[in-house]
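Quick one: structure for this chain?
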Amino acid sequence: MLAQRLRHLTVVEASERFVGEVQQRQIGNATVHHCMFENFAPTSSYDCVFATWVLTHMVDVQAVLKHAQGMLSGDGLLFVGVPNVRVLSRQLACHMGLLEDLYGLTPNDLAHGHLRAYDRQRLNSELDRAGFEVVAQRGLMMKFLADFQMDQLYETEMLTVAHVDGLFSLGNEYPDLTSAIYSVCKVKQ
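Got it. Here's what it folds into:
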C-alpha cells in the first residue's frame, strides 16, 4: 500500500520469511534490506520512517528510536504502531481471571517475540524520552474478544464489513481500548 503512494520505498526487515514475501511481490519502487532495524545504515535521510509492530521486540527501544531520529529529514515524520496492552479483550480476560496482570507478557506475546507491552501512556513516555513530539495518535480497532475468537466470527460471517467498519470507528473514539495504538511524531525542536 505504501509503495503505491511513494516514489521510493526502503524496507528494512529482520525476518527472512517476510523479506522473501516482499521480494516475491516484485515491487518496482521498493528496495529491501534484510537486517535488524538498529543495524541499518541509510545512505540518505527519509521524509517518513515507519516503525510498526517493532518496539515490542527491541532490547533497547531508546537506541532504536534515536536511530530512527537520525534517519529523518528535517521535517520528517516517524510513524509508530504497537499492540495495546489495555485493549478491551485483554481487560476482559483479566476480569474473567484468565490473566493476572494486564501488563504481564502472555504466552502469545512471548511466542511473537515481545519483550515489553505498551499502553498509550507508556508509548508516549518512550517517544518523549527519545526526543519526539506526538502530533497525532489514534487507536486502530475496538477488539472485544481474543484473536482466535474474532477470527471465528469473521469466518462464520457473524462479523460483517459493517461491524468491522464500526469497530474501527469506535477505535477512533476510544483509543485506549483498541487492539493497537499508532502515533505520528516529529523530532522536538
